[in-house]
Design the sequence.
């Protein structure tokens, strides 16, 4: 059966995110990239909750890195 659309998500172990992302790219994404005319979009979403709050130096570093890496959205909120 031919299909023309797929959307899936997977949770990664934070300390292994780099390796697991590489595995997803190798085992899943590359197969779609090889399909003629395929439009492939990959989105990385990060959610972190720190009940004791996030130290200011971490906020500053993450904010600067997100900007440098051209994240479309980024920011911190208080609950």
Sequence:
């Amino acid at each position: 059966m031919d299909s023309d659309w797929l959307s899936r998500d997977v949770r990664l172990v934070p300390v292994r995110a780099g390796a697991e992302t590489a595995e997803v790219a190798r085992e899943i994404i590359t197969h779609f990239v090889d399909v003629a005319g395929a439009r492939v979009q990959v989105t990385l979403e990060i959610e972190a909750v720190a009940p004791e709050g996030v130290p200011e130096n971490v906020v500053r570093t993450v904010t600067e890195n997100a900007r440098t890496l051209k994240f479309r959205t980024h920011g911190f909120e208080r609950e």
